[in-house]
Amino acid sequence: MLPKQKKQSGIQLQGLVCQCLSNGMFR
User: pTM (2 decimals)?
Assistant: First the structure.
């Protein structure tokens, strides 16, 4: 795995977590 790919997947995971937190807060 290239460091670039790892960084991208990490950012994607962060985005998903943020979305989950936002949804939970709005609900």
Answer: 0.47
